[in-house]
Specification:
The chain has about 300 residues and is α/β, with parallel strands linked by helices. It has three domains: about 70 residues, Arc Repressor Mutant, subunit A (Orthogonal Bundle); about 110 residues, Periplasmic binding protein-like II (D-Maltodextrin-Binding Protein, domain 2, 3-Layer(aba) Sandwich); about 110 residues, D-Maltodextrin-Binding Protein, domain 2 (3-Layer(aba) Sandwich), CATH 3.40.190.290. Helices cover about 45% and strands about 25% of the residues. The longest helix is centred in the first third of the chain and has 27 residues.
């Protein structure tokens, strides 16, 4: 179990408020201050810099936060490993970004459960940024994401390739052409996912590589739900940049059309991302690869 004072420090770093930290931890505000003072005395360093009503971490505070979060993640991983090694029924927490969590993993988890009834896999789905944060904080054993991430910070293995495409209603003017210009796309009724989304990040990075300033990007609507975005596109209330994986059904029935963007093709990877080597992670990755191979053979 992580030292209580380090837990307090991590909470304070996230809430940036002594009052909020006390409420989250169910302790008094003076106790939060005492925990921080203990750490500052122990390490002979100032950890918190107050700025008006708010606070920020000093350079030393940022260093402590980094290692405290890593230690916390190790403790949580140890706890889960010991619990699972001593019981027949095993539970693992995995995370996935929106595209994978909604359109790739459900099939894989269903097949896995049929073969391994004693293993419970609890899935959390969120955007790439938030899923990686939960992994670092030890709330997840490993994750599958489609977004960009720091490959020097994590262990990872590529699962498959994906392509992000322009999706429009069959009634939209774009649907009547073979390709459209980038300028027409970014200046029209463009619907995008929220910031932190892997799909949005890779689209914006692709625009930057072409010399565009994403700060000038005119977004018609910003929505966190893939299902909602697809519904708006089908109703011809806008168009979007989205993973082909998420619109396979709509492409088949013809309610959504895929249109090429001149000079822009966006390829990316679906990756397994994790912090530590564990038997279950290796076994689950092998299972997913085998399922993918089987689908390709069908």
């Amino acid at each position: 179990m992580l030292d209580t004072r380090l837990t307090t420090f991590i909470t304070l770093a996230r809430t940036k408020s002594f009052t909020k930290s006390a409420a989250v931890l169910n302790i008094t505000q003076p106790a939060v201050s005492q925990h921080v003072k203990f750490l500052e005395d122990k390490y002979e360093a100032t950890l918190i810099a107050k700025q008006g009503k708010g606070l920020n971490l000093t350079q030393e505070g940022l260093i402590l936060l980094k290692y405290a979060e890593e230690i916390d993640a190790l403790y949580k991983a140890l706890e889960m490993k010991l619990k699972n090694s001593g019981s027949i029924a095993k539970t693992y927490n995995i995370g996935a970004s929106m595209t994978i969590g909604g359109y790739v993993l459900p099939y894989l988890l269903g097949k896995h459960k049929k073969l391994h009834e004693n293993i419970d896999i609890l899935l959390q789905v969120n955007n790439t940024e938030e899923i990686l944060e939960k992994l670092v904080n030890g709330k997840l054993d490993f994750v599958m994401i489609e977004g960009l991430f720091d490959k020097n910070k994590f262990k990872f293995k590529k699962f498959k390739d994906d392509e992000v495409v322009l999706a429009v209603s069959k009634e939209h003017a774009f649907a009547k052409t073979k390709e459209v210009n980038v300028e027409d796309v970014i200046n029209g009724n463009l619907i995008l996912r929220e910031k932190g989304s892997g799909t949005r990040d890779i689209f914006e990075n692709s625009l930057i590589e072409l010399g565009y300033d994403v700060n000038d990007l005119k977004i018609y609507m910003e929505i966190g739900s893939i299902s909602a975005i697809k519904s708006l596109v089908e109703l011809n209330l806008g168009y979007t940049i989205i993973s082909r994986e998420t619109i396979r059904k709509e492409l088949e029935i013809g309610t959504i059309k895929e249109v090429a963007i001149k000079g822009l093709r966006i390829n990316r990877e679906f990756n397994f991302v994790y912090l530590y080597e564990e038997k279950f992670i290796e076994e689950f990755m092998d299972f997913c690869f085998n399922c993918q191979y089987s689908l390709l053979q069908d």
